[in-house]
Amino acid sequence: MDDKRTNGFEPLLIDVKGVASALGVSKRTVERMHANGVLPPSVRIGKTGVRWRMADIREWVNMLQPLS
């Protein structure tokens, strides 16, 4: 990800849109997964901001079992 906001660095925290993009699913799917406790815990930024640690999302994906 080479983006002017991050100066070429991967962001440490990502929002719903970022999680959706990383997982290849819709924002609504991420919201459902979050509500059902499927995703790693999020962190609150301010009163309404919800973010996930990119490292936690990567670790969670790596722990998923492949389909047999």
Descriptive overview:
There is one protein chain. The protein starts with 12 loop residues before the first strand and ends in a 5-residue tail after the last helix. The chain contains three helices and three strands; from the N terminus they run βααββα. A three-stranded antiparallel sheet has the order 1-3-2. 40% of the residues lie in helices and 15% in strands. It has helices spanning 16-23, 27-35, 54-63; strands at 13-14, 43-45, 49-53. The longest helix has 10 residues, at 54-63. β2 and β3 (49-53) form a beta hairpin. The mean pLDDT is 90.
List the helices and strands and how they pair.
Elements: E1 13-14, H1 16-23, H2 27-35, E2 43-45, E3 49-53, H3 54-63
Antiparallel strand pairs: 1-3, 2-3
Helix pairs in contact: 1-2
Provide keyphrases for this structure.
68 residues; alpha+beta; three-stranded antiparallel beta sheet; 3 helices; 40% helix
Distance between the termini: 31 Å
> pLDDT below 50 for ≥5 consecutive residues: which ranges?
none
Order of helices and strands: EHHEEH
User: How many helices?
Assistant: 3
By secondary-structure content and strand pairing, the structural class works out as alpha+beta
Largest sheet: 3 strands, antiparallel
Question: Quick gist of this model?
Answer:
The chain is α+β, with helices and mostly antiparallel strands. It is built from 3 helices and 3 strands.
